[in-house]
Amino acid sequence: xxxxxLFFGALVEVTKVSSMQINDIAxxxxxxxxxxxxxxxxxHYKFSVALNQNFLTDAAPLNNGDELALMPPxxxx
Length: 77
Description:
five-stranded mixed beta sheet, about 30% strand, Ubiquitin-like (UB roll), alpha+beta, 5 strands
């Protein structure tokens, strides 16, 4: 199973990538834990998580081909 992870805003600067593919992880919470280990500075940032363009409030199961987006708070005007 492969999940495409997208990073936006300041998170691109932290990870040095705008996207990456992650294999064999069962749910969104496991991916976030893995990303915190891979990119320790990510722990200092607040961000929302969307799965297939729907914001998550809890861990969600993942399927092959899913898209998980990590987005920092947006300011607008």
